[in-house]
Design goal:
Layout: E1 3-7, H1 11-23, E2 27-31, H2 34-43, E3 48-52, H3 60-70, E4 76-80, H4 85-93, E5 98-101, H5 106-131, H6 146-159, E6 165-168, H7 175-185, E7 193-197, H8 203-211, H9 228-231, E8 236-240, H10 247-259, E9 261-263, E10 270-272, E11 276-281, H11 285-291, H12 296-302, E12 305-308, H13 318-333, E13 340-342, H14 343-351, H15 357-371, E14 376-377, H16 384-391, H17 399-407, E15 412-414, H18 419-433, H19 438-445, H20 449-459
Parallel strand pairs: 1-2, 1-3, 3-4, 4-5, 6-11, 6-12, 7-8, 8-11, 13-14
Antiparallel strand pairs: 9-10, 13-15
Helix pairs in contact: 2-3, 6-7, 10-12, 13-15, 18-19, 19-20
Length: 463
C-alpha cells in the first residue's frame, strides 16, 4: 500500500484529503507544517507528498530544497491558494511534480497521484543499479588534472568517516560539489544534506537559522522553529563561508562540535543532535586566527581533514573538459545544435585567467551557447562583456604560441569525445604550438613539466 503525506496548515484540507485518499486505498499521514513534515520524512518512508505552498516555519520552497537532497525520487504535489504561471514554472524547476489551486479538482488530483507514483516506481528501479555504484557521486566533480584526482582520492578516504572536513578555495571553485560528494558517499547519505551560507544571512538572524528559536524569542517569532542543525539530524550540515561567523556564534558552534548539543534561541531545553559537519571558506583561516578574528580551538575542530581546491588558472588542463561539459549541458537546455568548440576559441579559454573560476566559465559557456548562430562555437560567439577580456592583445606568452594562434586553421572538439580524448588533444596541440618545447608547453597549460611528461606517457604522445 502506497503511503502519502499531506502537509497543510488548514485542518479541513488535511482531513478532507485524508478521507478521499484512504477511500482510494492509500495509507495517509497528515501534519500541519513543513518542520513536522521533515521530521516525518526522516523517520518514515513515504511514496508521495501533497504540500501546501504557504505554511508557517518552513514554506514549500524551502521544503522542496531539503527533500530534493534527502529523497530525490519522492514526488511532491503542490497546493496553493493563489497561483500564477510564473510560480508554477518555478516550482517545477525546483522539483515539484504537479501544481494545483485550492480547492483541488479531486479527479485531476487522483490522476496526478497515479502518474507520480508510477514515475517514482520507475526511478527507484533505475536507481537500484546506481545505488550499487556509490562512487558515481564523484562524477559531478569534473576534471582530470592531478589536483582534481587528488581531491577525489581524499573524498573517497574520508567519506565513510564522521570526521569534520574544511574545504578551502576561491569562490567558484566547486567547494559545495565536494561537500555534496562526501555526503553522498558516506554512511549518512540516506539522511539530509543541509546547506547554510553563513555569509548571506545577517548576523542577527544566523543564530536562529542554525539553532532554531522558541515562540516569542524575539519580535516576529510567532511560532517555534527548528534550526538547520535539527533538520540535519542523522545527516550532514554544510556551513559555507564559515569564516564570516561572529565570535558569539563561534562559541556556540564549538559546543555543538564538542558535545553534539545546543539550545534554541529563547529556549532552555538542551537538544542533542547526531550530525556531521563540513565547512568551507575562501579565507585563510590560519591568518584569521592570528588576527584574532577566528577562534583557534574552533579552527582545529573543523580542520580534522582539509581539502584545498586550486583555482582554475592553476589547473588549465581541466578547462577543455569543463567547457565541453557545459557546452553539452547548455545546448540541450537551450535546444541548440552545436557540435563543438573551435580551437581558436579554446586557446582563448586556456589563456584567460578565470578569476571567477568554474562558476565564471559555466556562465561564459551558457552565454556563448545562447549567442551562437552556427554549429560550432567560435570567437564570434563570445558574449559582448567578454570581448575585451578574451580578445585583448596577449602578453607574457611564448612567441611560438602567439604565432601558432595567428596562423593555424580553426578546428574543433566534437561533442561525445571522452575526457581523456579531449585532454590528449589539448596537450598535443599545445606541444605543436610550443614547437615541442616541453617547458613552454607546460607553462601554457598551467602545469609542471613533470606532470606534462607523465601525461604524454599516459596518452602515448611522442616527443
Amino acid at each position: 500500500m502506497e503511503k502519502i503525506l499531506v502537509v497543510d496548515d488548514e485542518e479541513n484540507i488535511r482531513e478532507g484529503l485524508k478521507t478521499v485518499l484512504e477511500t482510494e486505498g492509500y495509507s495517509v499521514d497528515t501534519v500541519k507544517d513543513g518542520n513536522e513534515a521533515i521530521d516525518k520524512i526522516n523517520t518514515n518512508v513515504f511514496d508521495l507528498v501533497i504540500l501546501d505552498l504557504k505554511m508557517p516555519n518552513l514554506d514549500g520552497y524551502e521544503f522542496l530544497n531539503i527533500v530534493s537532497k534527502t529523497d530525490p525520487y519522492l514526488p511532491i504535489i503542490i497546493l496553493t491558494g493563489h497561483g500564477s504561471l510564473q510560480e508554477a514554472v518555478e516550482l517545477t524547476k525546483r522539483g515539484a511534480f504537479d501544481y494545483f489551486l485550492k480547492p483541488p479538482d479531486i479527479d485531476r488530483l487522483l490522476t496526478s497521484i497515479v502518474k507520480a507514483l508510477e514515475l517514482r516506481k520507475q526511478l527507484l528501479e533505475k536507481g537500484k543499479e546506481k545505488a550499487t555504484q556509490p562512487f558515481e557521486a564523484l562524477d559531478n566533480i569534473i576534471g582530470e588534472s592531478e589536483e582534481i584526482k587528488s581531491i577525489k582520492t581524499i573524498v573517497r578516504k574520508v567519506a565513510s568517516t564522521d570526521a569534520t572536513v574544511l574545504i578551502t578555495g576561491e569562490s567558484g571553485t566547486g567547494k559545495e560539489l565536494i561537500a555534496n560528494a562526501i555526503h553522498s558517499l558516506s554512511n549518512r547519505r540516506k539522511g539530509p544534506f543541509i546547506k547554510v551560507n553563513c555569509g548571506s544571512i545577517p548576523e542577527t538572524l544566523l543564530e536562529a537559522e542554525l539553532f532554531g528559536h522558541e515562540k516569542g524569542a524575539f519580535t516576529g517569532a510567532i511560532n517555534r522553529r527548528k534550526g538547520r542543525f535539527e533538520l540535519a539530524h542523522k545527516g550532514t550540515i554544510f556551513l559555507d563561508e564559515i569564516g564570516e561567523i561572529s565570535p558569539k556564534l563561534q562559541v556556540a558552534l564549538l559546543r555543538v562540535l564538542q558535545d553534539k548539543e545546543f539550545q534554541r534561541v529563547g529556549g532552555e531545553e538542551t537538544i542533542k543532535v547526531d550530525v556531521r559537519i563540513i565547512t568551507a571558506t575562501n579565507k585563510n583561516l590560519e591568518e584569521e586566527v592570528k588576527k584574532g578574528n577566528f577562534r583557534e580551538d574552533l579552527f582545529y575542530r573543523i580542520n580534522i581533514i582539509s581539502i584545498h581546491v586550486p583555482p582554475l588558472r592553476q589547473r588549465k588542463t581541466d578547462i577543455p573538459i569543463l567547457a565541453n561539459f557545459f557546452l553539452k549541458k547548455y545546448t540541450e537546455t537551450h535546444n541548440k545544435n552545436i557540435e563543438g568548440i573551435s580551437e581558436e576559441l579554446m586557446n582563448l579559454l586556456l589563456e584567460y585567467s578565470w578569476p571567477g573560476n568554474v562558476r565564471e566559465l559555466q556562465n561564459f559557456m551558457e552565454s556563448s551557447v545562447i549567442m551562437c548562430s552556427e554549429n560550432i562555437l567560435t570567437v564570434s560567439s563570445i558574449p559582448p562583456n567578454y570581448q575585451t577580456k578574451l580578445l585583448q592583445p596577449k602578453v607574457n606568452l611564448p612567441q611560438t604560441h602567439n604565432k601558432e594562434l595567428d596562423n593555424e586553421k580553426v578546428i574543433y572538439i566534437k561533442l561525445g569525445a571522452t575526457l581523456k580524448e579531449t585532454e590528449k588533444k589539448v596537450i598535443e596541440k599545445t606541444l605543436e604550438a610550443a614547437e615541442h618545447n616541453k617547458s613552454k608547453a607546460a607553462r601554457i597549460l598551467g602545469i609542471t613539466r613533470k606532470t606534462l611528461i607523465m601525461k604524454m606517457r599516459e596518452y602515448g604522445i611522442q616527443d
